[in-house]
Amino acid sequence: MSIMAKISKGLSKTREKMAQAFQAVFERGPSRDYELLEEFLILADVGPAAAAAIVAKVKEKNSPELIPALKEELVQTLNLDSEDKPVKIFVGINGSGKTTSVGKLCHRFVSEGKKVFVIGTDTFRAAADMQLEEWCRRAGVPYLLGKPGSDPGAVLYDGLNSAAAKNADYILCDTAGRLHSNKNLMQELEKILRVSERVRPGAVEVLLTLDAATGQNALQQMETFEQWVKPSGIILTKLDGSAKGGVAIALAAKYRVPIKYIGVGEGIEDLLLFAAESYVNSLFPENE
Length: 288
What we know:
The protein has a domain at 87-231: Rossmann fold (3-Layer(aba) Sandwich). Helices cover 51% and strands 14% of the residues. The chain has 13 helices and 8 strands. The protein has helices at residues 3-10, 12-26, 34-43, 48-61, 66-78, 98-111, 126-139, 152-160, 163-166, 183-199, 217-228, 247-255, 276-283; strands spanning 87-91, 116-120, 143-145, 170-174, 204-211, 233-237, 259-263, 271-273. Strands 3-2-4-1-5-6-7-8 form an 8-stranded mixed beta sheet, sandwiched between helices. Helix 11 (217-228) links the parallel strand 5 and strand 6 (233-237). Helix 3 (34-43) runs antiparallel to helix 4. The protein is elongated and about 60 Å long. It starts with a helix and ends in a 5-residue tail after the last helix.
């Protein structure tokens, strides 16, 4: 299956919801109901602010070709500059797909011929270590896992200074899932970031994993993580099981943080590099 086909399949539920908007609005010809279009975008979890701004720009253009005009605005909203850095710190709440994303990126980078090293700093849940270890074994990459109860910052420090890390093209660091409302855990995460920047200054990026099914709640998570660790990229997971793929547009419009990868299935190759144009095209009915 091609990458475009995977994206299209993964966004099928969102596309079905968006199709309702296009059928209701675009078939009205000169009397297009822009308020109805805005309402449907909101129902697809584009969010009130982003939906209003996008519809206003489309209306300004007054283009006879309404669908291309809408596509153009959505692509511009999502098409943000993204810098690739060698040290990637994965953060997110429990169940967002963080550890799975680490494992799938391991597979992706190895298949591209890159050397990868993984550091596991979740020293609270033994199950997390077991899951991460299994992913690393499947991808054939070296790893360092913190002992139960050890300090996550110290584990990261040791890992970044190891010989394996120095020989790696990419270093992926998994962190413990944490509720974005837990101040103590967010402070711990802030410490992990300080350690990584001290050892590898300028080489670190923070990737926030967000479950697409949470819809607008993803913005609340982003808000808190942005305050503490300022994510430089987003991994939007579980799009295949949700009709809320429009939340990608809401996130990009409000925070101007690029979406770097999207999860469109459970397979090891189903974490895809984000491409704004492909994503937007997959939101529209196939006959458009």
